[in-house]
Amino acid sequence: MDWRTLKVRSEVLGKSFKTNNSGTCFVFEYNNYQDVLVMFHEPSCIVSCSMSNLKKGKVENPIKPVVYNIGYSGIGLYNSTNSRRYYGIWNNMLERCYSKTTRHKFPTYKDVTVCREWWDFQNFAKWCDTAEFVNSRDENGRYYHLDKDILSPASKEYSPKDCCFVPSYINTLFTKRQNSDLPVGVSPDKLRGGYVVKMSDGVSTCNYLGRFSCEKQAFEVYKKAKEGYIKEVANLYINKIPKEVYQKMMKYEVSSVG
Question: Residues 219, 256: contact at Cβ < 8 Å?
C-alpha cells in the first residue's frame, strides 16, 4: 500500500457518509479507491463500493426494506437489471399485497401476504429459475402469470409451495370478484326478484346461466358450470401447464365465497 493510499485510508477509516436511500454508513476498511468496505447499522450489513460512489451517496444497503417497506434486493447474483423480468414479477406481487392504493382498489388482496422468504429478491429469483413455464408465452405472445390460487385455493400467501406460472387466461379463471353476501356467481334480480346466475369465461364474456328463486339452487348451477368449464380449459392446456396444475384444475371445487 503506497503512501497516498495510506494517507486516504487514515482520513476515511471510521468516517461516516450519508447515502441517498439507505441512511448513514461508515468506512469499515479501505484497500484502495475502488475497493472500500462500508458498514450499515440498520439493518447491519457490510457492502463493497468505490470511494467515488460513496462520496456521491450512491451506495445502498441491500437488506434494507425499500420496496413497499417489505422487499429488499438482497445479497447475490440477481438484480433489477440482469433479472428484469423476475424483478417486475416480484415488485408487482409486493404491490398487490402491500400498496395501500392497490389494496383499496382490489379488496380481494386485503388479507393476502408474501412469505418472509420472498421479501428477499434473491430468494424469489432463485425460485423463478427452477419454476416450470416461467418464461413461457401464451398464444398471444404474453408471458405466463404468477398464480397462487390453483395449487392452494385457500391460501392467502404467496410462497414457493403455493405458486406456479400459468397462462393469463387460466390465471383469470380463479380471480375472486364476489362483492356481496351472496354466493359467488349469484346476484339479485332487482326487477323480477329471485337470483341471476352468470359465469365469466375469464376474459370478457359473461355467460347468462339463468334466473332462480332459490339462492342455493342458483349457486349449485354456477358451481357445476364453473367446475365443468375449468376442466375443459385444463384439457385444452394439458401440455402447456405444469402437471400438478392440470391435476388441481381437474379436481377443482368452487366454494360459495370464490
Answer: yes
C-alpha to C-alpha distance for 183 and 219, rounded to whole angstroms: 6
What is residue 157's DSSP assignment? E
Three-class secondary structure of residue 165 per DSSP? strand
d(CA 149, CA 107): 16
- Give pTM, 2 decimals: 0.83
Q: Give the per-residue pLDDT at 178.
A: 56
Q: How far apart, in whole angstroms, are the C-alpha atoms of residue 252 and residue 204?
A: 22
Q: Does residue 258 register a pLDDT over 60? A: no
How far apart, in whole angstroms, are the C-alpha atoms of residue 142 and residue 144?
6
Cell triple for 44: 447491519
Say how far apart CA 201 and CA 193 lie, in whole Å: 25
Residue-level pLDDT at 256? 67
SS3 210: strand
Q: Beta strand 113-114 with 157-158: parallel, antiparallel or unpaired?
A: parallel
Rounded (10°) CA dihedral 150, 93, 202, 197: 80
- If pLDDT is split at 50, 70 and 90, which confidence band does 40 have? very high
- The pLDDT, as a whole number, for residue 188 is 86
Hey, what's the cell of 70? 417489505
Q: Where are the alpha helices (DSSP H) in 26-142?
A: 51-56, 84-98, 100-105, 121-130
What phi, psi does 168 have (nearest 5°)? -55, -35
pLDDT tens digits, one per residue of 142-171: 999 999 989 998 889 999 999 999 998 898
The amino acid at residue 33 is Y
Alpha-carbon distance 168 to 133, whole Å? 12
Handedness of CA 103, 104, 108, 110 (dihedral sign): positive
